[in-house]
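W.,

You were right to be curious about this one. When I first looked at the sequence I had no strong expectations either way, so I just let the prediction run and decided to look at it fresh. Below is the sequence, 315 residues in total, followed by the output.
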Amino acid sequence: MRERIEYWIVRLLIGLVRWMPDAMVRGCGSLLGLAFYAFDGAHRRVAERNLALAFPLRSAAERQAIVRGAFKHFGHLLFELLKFSTLTPEQMLDRVEFEGEDRVELAHAQGRGVLFCTGHFGFWELQGIVHPLRFPPMAVVARVLDNRRLNALLEHMRRRTGNGVIYRQGTLRRVMRTLQANGGVGVLIDQHIQGKDAVEVAFFDRPAATTPAVAALALRTGAPVVPLFALPLGGGRYKMVYEHPVEPPPADSPDRVREFTQRCTDVLEMYVRRHPDLWLWMHRRWRTGEASGEAARGMFPAAKPDSGETEELRS
């Protein structure tokens, strides 16, 4: 019953935002985010602790403003995602501009596929949707939502412009096939990962357990790694940024997977430092010394352990 109610609420919202002016869409998203800020105490406290760890020299008032901004941003992201699901491809392209197009073209020209890495930052879902309107489609590695009906709806949104979706369990074969066909694969690298596959890298000068999948795949296949980020320009427009490919570590590096993962994480951290209110501070990124039972269900995603397939790539 809960799944059905959640699903039909989202369907109702899609019907409403279809006819809403852009300013109202953004306003409703901000209101939703502020409502979660007011009532979702568990995630608010997680965000406050994370900000204190990441920016210890900033004042409490500054950190609190970032937390509020982050909640507003994710409400805004949700409504913009619903709005984009109602637009035609031409209408989507009218709302975005691209930076670094040549980097994507040169990466695909190598013929080994392209690994795109990012995090829960900015408007990454919108970037995934518009990406195949300008470049070859990518397969997005994702986790399955708890609500099966909402998961099917989100998958439809992600696929409607030509992308594919690869879920975490049993992904290695499909990812390898995509890269061998010179396709793109998109991976989020900013969630805490449990299990033996995780590698520990520095994120805001603190150890963070991170998926090694991007680095292991790149070293195994030779596919270039291109970080991507979607930034707001104001007025309902967005800049889709494709960064320079991440240089792989030297062949004689003692731990190439960890070093490569660190380099990818450093690019993400650079963007989060520039725009801290656009990142998912509500996720327990650093788990040292925290009780395992603090995770809360809500509008923010939680990572699941890798399936163990990455170990095959590292060996």
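Here's what jumped out at me. The longest strand covers residues 225-234. And, maybe more interesting for your project: Strands lie at 96-99, 114-118, 138-142, 164-167, 184-188, 199-203, 206-210, 225-234, 237-242.

Coffee later to discuss?

I.
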